[in-house]
């Protein structure tokens, strides 16, 4: 007989039509390697089709399903039941949306609002360095890429922003800052001064307290604090 | 009390793009580049365009480097033609492969971080089916960004859209195309966050909604790939081409369906059944575990069918094992690092010590809304709908015929995206505005009224699960006349059940169940045309395998066009396969005839 777990999920709910919030408890029996996204689907299919939650690729590649589970921001498509029980030492889970944007319904937040900060740093190349006459294409050595390539793995799940001790009212946030730092390190980008202006502004990286909470929670295991530290030193 | 639905507002724009993944956004970028100031609205079902499924593509993008000493465009064209089992269109193959290198350079200018070699140039890797000298040896043709090429492309494109200040409607769906006198003038949107229906009047409309993998139980596709674009086209009386051409990857990881790449077997991984017997020797004595994808998929399905599979208790999915325990730590820790990490993350298995559960997973739809080589949507073989375009996985031009080669899908997104962008600009410059149909939006309102006012007791999730199981069992890797007939009967019953099922919540705002109910409608329509196409194609071709008709037959050398009539009946038509390279009788033209797909 395969092992199963009897879990209690205490899920924060919100109804935009009545503007009411409450905690709803669901009891779920699940096999050891079901993921939390599978549990939500099970709840929809067997108990309550109205529970709204967000996901897309469910492969840890899009960053749509980030939630707060017992106080830790993480991607629920990667959270297996047995790992969750083992990590949190409990079978009771408090499930909440990340506090980085307004809630639309239940566990679905308004990502558009969260992304405003990423948009603000202009994650594209603002001013492209022109190719010289003899060059047909850009030459970029692996050593240069090594400086920033890990950071390009960021999927903007906002777990770091959620965990950040500096709060998000005045700080551009770890993921948005990192998106700009990547372009500071990218030799194709010429608009370095414009980038520095924002990175060193009132809402820039000096808001960061170097608690390293961002690196601790990053589901992609990117050392975000390291990039911010480099930027503070001007070591691009 | 019955709800009365209404259209809240009407918006006008030059171009409406439905779907904001790789194809839709490449198209948008081209339009902005050629015609600055064009007003574009891009609609996406996901929370932000960066969440699109293009971001999940791992491997690479094939592009013949004009500076390569040995690789030539004609080899890439040949590989694509052969891979398609002689069912791709040669005008499209030519156009796409010829544009591939320019598109690569464009992506670099847009900030993509392709993996580089020690000289600082683009690294290249080899993929199955890509060869030099017409099949002689493997070609190093795929450029890539580590194991996240799709994400690199998507990030370059959504940020370009941001720079161009394109207006996005996120978490929104397009439910109805406005077509009158064979001219499309926009679409009706449902904006989930606000719970509002919005009429968009557009001079040009582009469908780029992606795949339909959720039709099957195990799929590599994301949760949102529910064939929406196909279903909306079918509802407008337009055809879907080659719906029966669906690709399965042999080794999806049980549970999330995520791909465990061929590299596992390349490095020495062995497939085993419940008795731990290495069974591939019984199916492909020579190549064994390294046989082509379709042969391995069929072997695994056969083991499962003959009760030599294993049932996974948590996911209730039958599977076989891949044994990697005998491989060295170096292979595990260095060469297979990412895939080993997938087994750890998604099934909590240490591949060094334990057997890993895998089974064939639905991967890609080769067919789609039929288009010309410029992405113009066709109503029939010789008629287009003016002002309507389709690109990406939801469309079929057709680059892939009945079997897609690895790395050709993201190539298609960016090249066809660009071509459609060019065509749209030409269209905007000469096109005149047209009237909306008198009842624009009414069909959607009545459809959603039905959803909201149904009274039956049932559950959409359960209906969807039955459909997915049926499709996997009867219209998946193996197909037979009897199985397909049964599948069709089940789908008809499910349609009926779904139609009468009441929603638990009647709100319009971010009502996930309401949208899932609409998605289920879409999935059932797509599933029906897949089954119908597979029933009538009594042969085997590419990924379409009929156990009762195992050979390819010349009398089926055409594309299927499937329509759903207003009464719900499925009718079929045909479109000829373009063989312009062969017919031009140029150098090596004989390679582009109806050749055998043997590797």
Give a written overview of the molecule.
- The complex is a heterodimer of chains A (236) and B (599).
- Chain A has 236 residues and is α+β, with helices and mostly antiparallel strands.
- Chain A has 9 helices and 7 strands; from the N terminus they run E-E-H-E-E-H-E-E-E-H-H-H-H-H-H-H.
- Chain A has a 5-stranded mixed sheet with strand order 2-1-5-3-4.
- The relative contact order of chain B is 0.17.
- The model of chain B has no long low-confidence stretch (mean pLDDT 94).
- Chains A and B meet through helix 1 and helix 3 of A and helix 3, helix 4, helix 10, helix 13 and helix 15 of B.
Q: Count of helical segments of chain A?
A: 9
Largest sheet of chain B: 8 strands, mixed
Biggest pleated sheet of chain A: 5 strands, mixed
Low-confidence stretches of chain B: none
Number of helical segments of chain B? 16
Overall shape of chain A: elongated
Helix content of chain A: 25-40%
Name of the CATH superfamily of the domain at 442-555 in chain B: Fumarate reductase/succinate dehydrogenase flavoprotein-like, C-terminal domain
CATH topology of the domain at 442-555 in chain B: Methane Monooxygenase Hydroxylase, Chain G, domain 1
**Content of β-strand of chain B:** 15-25%
Query: Rough shape of chain B?
Result: globular
- From the coordinates shown, what is the CATH architecture of the domain at 442-555 in chain B? Up-down Bundle
Spatial gap, N to C terminus of chain B: 64 Å
Task: Provide a brief overview of the structure.
With 236 residues, chain A is an alpha+beta fold. Chain A has helices at residues 36-46, 81-88, 111-120, 142-148, 159-163, 174-185, 192-199, 213-217, 224-233; strands at residues 4-15, 20-31, 66-69, 72-75, 92-96, 103-105, 108-109. Chain A is built from nine helices and seven strands; from the N terminus they run E-E-H-E-E-H-E-E-E-H-H-H-H-H-H-H.
């Amino acid at each position: 007989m395969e092992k199963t777990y009897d879990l209690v999920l205490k899920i924060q709910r919100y109804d935009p039509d009545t503007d009411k919030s409450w905690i709803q408890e669901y009891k779920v029996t699940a096999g050891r390697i079901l993921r939390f996204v599978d549990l939500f689907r099970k709840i929809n299919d067997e108990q309550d089709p109205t529970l709204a939650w967000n996901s897309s690729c469910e492969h840890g590649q899009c960053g749509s399903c980030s939630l707060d589970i017992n106080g830790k921001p993480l991607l629920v498509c990667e959270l297996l039941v047995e790992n969750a029980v083992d990590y949190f030492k409990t079978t009771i889970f408090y499930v909440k949306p990340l506090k980085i944007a307004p809630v639309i319904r239940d566990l679905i937040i308004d990502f558009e609002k969260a992304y405003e900060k990423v948009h603000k740093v202009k994650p594209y190349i603002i001013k492209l360095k022109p190719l010289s006459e003899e060059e047909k294409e850009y030459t970029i050595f692996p050593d240069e890429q090594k400086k920033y390539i890990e950071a390009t793995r960021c999927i903007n799940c906002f777990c770091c922003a959620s965990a950040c001790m500096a709060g998000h009212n005045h700080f551009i946030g770890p993921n948005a800052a990192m998106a700009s730092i990547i372009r500071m390190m990218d030799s194709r980008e010429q608009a370095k001064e414009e980038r520095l202006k924002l990175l060193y502004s009132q809402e820039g990286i000096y808001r960061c307290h170097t608690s390293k909470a961002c690196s601790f929670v990053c589901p992609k295991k990117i050392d975000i604090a390291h990039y911010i530290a480099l930027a503070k030193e001007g070591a691009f | 009390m019955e709800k009365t639905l209404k259209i809240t507002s009407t918006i006008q724009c030059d171009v409406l793009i439905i779907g904001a993944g790789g194809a839709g956004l490449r198209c948008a970028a081209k339009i902005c580049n050629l015609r600055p100031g064009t007003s574009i609205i891009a609609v996406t079902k996901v929370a932000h365009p960066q969440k699109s499924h293009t971001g999940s593509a791992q491997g690479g993008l094939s592009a013949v480097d004009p500076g390569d000493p040995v690789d030539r465009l004609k080899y890439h064209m040949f590989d694509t033609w052969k891979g398609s089992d002689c069912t791709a269109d040669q005008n499209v193959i030519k156009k796409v492969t010829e544009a591939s290198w320019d598109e690569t350079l464009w992506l670099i200018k847009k900030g993509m971080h392709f993996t580089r070699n020690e000289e600082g140039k683009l690294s290249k890797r080899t993929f199955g089916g890509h060869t030099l000298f017409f099949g002689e040896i493997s070609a190093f043709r795929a450029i890539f960004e580590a194991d996240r090429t799709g994400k690199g492309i998507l990030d370059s494109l959504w940020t370009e859209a941001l720079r161009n200040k394109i207006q996005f409607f996120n978490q929104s769906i397009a439910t109805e195309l406005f077509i009158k006198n064979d001219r499309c003038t926009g679409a009706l949107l449902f904006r989930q966050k606000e719970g509002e229906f919005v009429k968009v009047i557009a001079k040009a409309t582009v469908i780029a909604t992606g795949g339909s993998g959720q039709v099957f139980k195990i799929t590599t596709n994301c949760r949102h790939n529910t064939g929406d674009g196909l279903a909306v086209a079918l509802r407008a009386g337009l055809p879907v081409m080659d719906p029966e051409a669906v690709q399965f990857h042999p080794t999806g990881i049980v549970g999330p369906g995520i791909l465990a790449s061929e590299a596992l077997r390349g490095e020495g991984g062995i497939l085993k059944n419940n008795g731990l017997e290495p069974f591939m020797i019984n199916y492909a004595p020579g190549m064994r575990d390294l046989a082509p994808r379709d042969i391995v998929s069929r072997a695994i399905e056969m083991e499962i069918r003959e009760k030599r599979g294993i049932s996974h208790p948590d996911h209730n999915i039958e599977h076989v094992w891949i044994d990697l325990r005998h491989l060295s730590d170096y292979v595990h820790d260095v060469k297979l690092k990412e895939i080993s990490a997938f087994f750890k993350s998604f099934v909590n298995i240490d591949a060094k010590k334990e057997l890993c559960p895998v089974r064939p997973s639905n991967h890609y739809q080769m067919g789609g809304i039929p288009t010309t080589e410029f992405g113009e949507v066709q109503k029939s073989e010789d008629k287009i709908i003016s002002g309507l375009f389709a690109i990406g996985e939801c469309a079929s031009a057709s680059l892939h015929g009945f079997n897609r080669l690895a790395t050709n899908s993201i190539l298609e997104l960016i090249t066809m995206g660009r071509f459609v962008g060019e065509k749209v600009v030409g269209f905007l410059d000469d096109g005149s505005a047209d009237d909306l149909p008198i009842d624009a939006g009414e069909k959607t309102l009545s459809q959603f009224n039905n959803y909201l006012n149904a009274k039956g007791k049932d559950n959409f999730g359960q209906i969807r699960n039955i459909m997915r199981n049926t499709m996997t069992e009867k219209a998946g890797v193996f197909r037979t006349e009897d199985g397909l007939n049964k599948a069709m009967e089940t789908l008809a019953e499910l349609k009926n059940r779904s139609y009468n099922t009441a929603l638990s919540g009647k709100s319009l705002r971010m009502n996930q169940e309401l949208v899932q109910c609409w998605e289920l409608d879409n999935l059932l329509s797509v599933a029906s045309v897949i089954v119908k196409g597979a029933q009538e194609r009594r042969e085997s071709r590419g990924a379409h395998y009929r156990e009762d008709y195992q050979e390819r037959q010349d009398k089926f050398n055409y594309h299927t066009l499937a329509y759903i009539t207003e009464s719900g009946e499925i009718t079929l038509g045909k479109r000829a396969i373009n063989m312009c390279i062969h017919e031009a009788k140029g150098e090596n033209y004989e390679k582009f005839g109806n050749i055998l797909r043997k590797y």
